[in-house]
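Reading a protein record of the kind used here takes little practice once its layout is understood. The fold follows as a row of integers, each naming the local backbone shape at the matching residue. With these conventions in mind, the following record can be read line by line:

_____
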Amino acid sequence: MTSGSRQPTGLRIRPTAALVRAAVIGGASLALSLALGRPELILVGMPMLAWALVSLARRVLRGEELAVVDPQLRISRRSIEEGGTAAVVVQTAPGVLTTASLPMPPHAELAPRHGSLAGDGEVALRVSAQRWGQLRVGPLHVLVADALGARRAQRTLPPAEVQVVPASTVLDAPVEVPTPIGVSGAHLSRRRGDGTALSEVRAFRPGDRLHRINWRVSSRTRELHTNATFTEQDTEVLIVTDTIADVAPAPWAAAGDPTSLDMTIRATAAIARHYLTAGDRVSVFDIGHLIGPVPPGSGPRQLRVLTAALSRAGRDDSALRPVRRLRSVRPGTLAVVCTPLLSRDAIAQIGVLVAHGADVIVVDTLPPSIGDVSVLRGRPLPVDGKVSPRFWPEAWAMRRLLRERTVRELREAGVPITVWEGPSSLAPVLLSLSAARSAPRRRRS
């Protein structure tokens, strides 16, 4: 458990108004019964007086143990994945009735659902995150009281931040890349050199390593032969994200459907995890300004750095900033562009990557409900030349038709485009690129 917010001073438990009323009414009934000589008046205030005396006796017997309570807020995990759960624990002191109330955070679920729970000295609530980003837990209202409810106090603890990283989706796609770059990695190269994949058994030449001598073939042919191997190479994977605009799903879409930014973030995390697991170097370049640039790196640490950068992307940042442009890229780099293909700057960046010799794949992140023409069936036609002000479906349908021209031109230029529909979205594209790499080529005269 990691410690969270802690108040610098304790919370002093003071008598409640109920205790004061019980003491006043009980004492007044006792005084009236003695003054008027009517013992039956004692029965009116005796229960309240007895309750006040018992609470006072408990206070005296326990001394200052419950006089001051220091509520502490702890969160079990400061970083969780989408769909993960973190425990929010409020701890006071043993024997103190503790009640905690937590407002419902956006894109999250609480257990219990109403976000309020009571316990003896400790209260544990559970928060389940449904979307990536910074989850603000709190402010948390804490109320403490003794066992009889005679004394109580309350305080509002400041909120705590929980980082929600994109879900760890395992990409269902091959790890082959069109053009491997480097000298060590998981990709088989066409070039012969140090590696583990056997290329051929040939005659020994000066300079060959002795440990590669094939003694079985050498003893049979009476001449030294050595094993020739293919080199194993890694590659550079550049993920270009288009966060210029966050396109929300259509109003008639199902609740919880992802926006274009959600699809971009999840696709980036899945692609990065896929190639980092294969030992490649992965970097991220954001055309917008929501995701900070992630320099190339490999290994588990690079995955943690990358997912942390993705989770810090601000959803409500509406400030207009100049679009970033990637000036150059290493030839042979596998560039995966995640974009809804609505911005001219993003389309121009695809052309720059192709011109610099990168192997470009475009992942379409436009929500499928945008521009859906099926919702136009049955809509009333304009009457007396008056068009309904609710022309949102027609406008997006026309915009998607205009976008189809861009998609067609990119495909004619040799840039494959695939719609992000989950872990298996990139498999057909990568398989076709691998097949094109090994296909016979026409020799130019």
In short: The two ends are 70 Å apart (CA to CA).
